[in-house]
Write a structure and sequence with these properties.
The strands form 2 sheets. A 5-stranded parallel β-sheet has the order 2-3-4-1-5, with helices on both faces. It has a two-stranded antiparallel sheet with strand order 6-7. Helices cover 48% and strands 9% of the residues. Among the domains are: 230 residues, no CATH class; 57 residues, no CATH class.
């Protein structure tokens, strides 16, 4: 899929594309990736979940299955594209899936993953001109094709090859995204004969590793944390077949579910990595100047800072709580408002109107039953690190009403706009 071209904005009109929600790709990443967020995310200069993933994938000791969790909009997609590029520069064979584009996030299950794993391996082999056994390719093709009346082929053993299999995968993707007969047939077959499919996967990955001088293939499922409803991720990753891949594989995972008691049943089978938010404030509500500066530098890569009036950008940064997606969304809204006023820069009134729109959206996600817990998170420094109402916490983290940060320990805090809303409503009393 071709993404909208991103260029650094030189005027307000340019901000519509430069701050678009499109993911950075191999072309745009070198221009817009800021590579120094980890110290402020992690609270020290040496910890990095992405560095851990790089080492785990290249050294491959023990568990091959990895879960990367983090809030939506915290930068996981960008970090994974950067990881992919680093692995490729190291000579590793790697393939990245945009899960939300390739799969139906309301239907996807572990059997979809198994099929996409096979397709990813075939794509790696094709890219590196690795000749897979025709017998293996034919077995993969026949395994899926059998009992599917709508799929026909005229290929013979002499012409059959990886191109045919890749074309076949492309042809059935639309069926996999909907509750069709084809999807049902494939799922039922894989449930009955999972070990046979896993054998095909091993044959392909072993051939790739052999031809690549012992370097194992690496697959990345970016965006899988967008599964709906999020709780389905617990059922999907409970299938132990996903932990039996003989090569590294990375899935993004909803961060709120790491606090669910059911997560313990799968945690021991995966290496779990957490990408925290960029801190623009501290647990004691003081501003985090280093975090604000990091966010400012990320914005500066995409737009001339002269397009922001004094204080307007800082207001957007502080009030979006380190959620990059929210910051970019508000910048786009503010730039539109400023242009319609006839201004050539975003001023404070534009920032505040944009934040008001976001606040309205977020505040609709809370109910009266949530107010006591949210007020306690705001007022009690110790409670931020040991919230007891896990069910409410899960809901509010999914909604980005409560955000997680790290500075040694992991801790939660209200989204700044929710805190402001609750103060205005008299739910939270601020000591003067």
């Amino acid at each position: 899929m071709k993404y909208l071209e991103i260029k650094k904005a030189e005027d307000l009109a340019g901000m519509l594309s430069s701050f678009s929600p499109e993911h950075l790709d191999d072309t745009t990443l070198p221009k817009f990736y800021y590579n120094n967020t980890m110290p402020i995310r992690m609270g020290n200069n040496y910890s990095s979940p992405l560095e851990d993933l790089f080492e785990d994938c290249t050294m491959t000791v023990g568990t091959n299955a990895h879960l990367l969790s983090g809030h939506g909009g915290c930068g996981k997609s960008t970090e994974l594209v950067n990881l992919k590029q680093r692995l490729e520069k190291d000579g590793q064979p790697v393939y990245l899936f945009r899960s939300e584009l390739e799969m139906n996030m309301y239907l996807a299950d572990c059997w979809d993953i198994m099929l996409f794993v096979t397709e990813g391996l075939c794509n790696i082999a094709h890219k590196h001109e690795i000749n897979l056994s025709n017998a293996t390719l034919q077995a993969v093709f026949d395994y899926i094709k059998k009992d599917m009346e709508e799929v026909e082929t005229t290929e013979t053993s002499s012409t059959f090859g990886i191109g045919v299999v890749l074309s076949f995968f492309a042809s059935i993707k639309s069926n996999l995204q909907f509750g069709t007969k084809t999807r049902t047939i494939i799922k039922e077959k894989m449930e009955r004969r999972a070990s046979e499919w896993l054998r095909h996967i091993r044959e392909i990955s072993d051939k790739i590793a052999y031809e690549m001088g012992g370097k194992l293939p690496i697959l990345i499922f970016e965006g899988f944390d967008k599964i709906q409803p999020p709780e389905r991720a617990l059922d999907i990753f409970r299938h132990d077949i996903l932990t039996k891949m003989p090569f590294p594989i990375i899935y993004t995972f909803p961060i709120a579910l790491t606090y669910d008691s059911r997560f313990a049943s799968i945690e021991s089978f995966y290496r779990v990595h957490v990408l925290p938010m960029i801190k623009v404030s501290n647990a004691d509500k003081t501003e985090n100047d280093d975090g604000i500066e990091v966010m400012r530098k990320i914005v500066e890569l995409r737009a001339d800072l002269k397009l922001f009036d004094k204080g307007a950008l800082d207001e957007l940064i502080k009030q979006t709580g380190g959620v990059l997606r929210h910051l970019f969304q508000c910048i786009i809204t503010a730039s539109r408002l400023a242009r319609r006023r006839g201004s050539d820069k975003i001023e404070m009134e534009d920032s505040r109107l944009a934040l008001s729109d976001l606040s309205s959206m977020l505040s609709k996600r809370i109910s009266d039953a949530d107010l006591d817990m949210l007020a306690r998170i705001f007022n009690d420094l110790n409670y931020k690190k040991r919230i007891e109402d896990r069910e409410s916490l899960l809901k509010q983290m999914h909604a980005l009403v409560v955000l997680e940060y790290k500075n040694g320990d992991r801790w939660q805090d209200l989204h700044p706009l929710i805190a402001e809303f609750l103060i205005e409503q008299g739910v939270i009393n601020v000591k003067k």
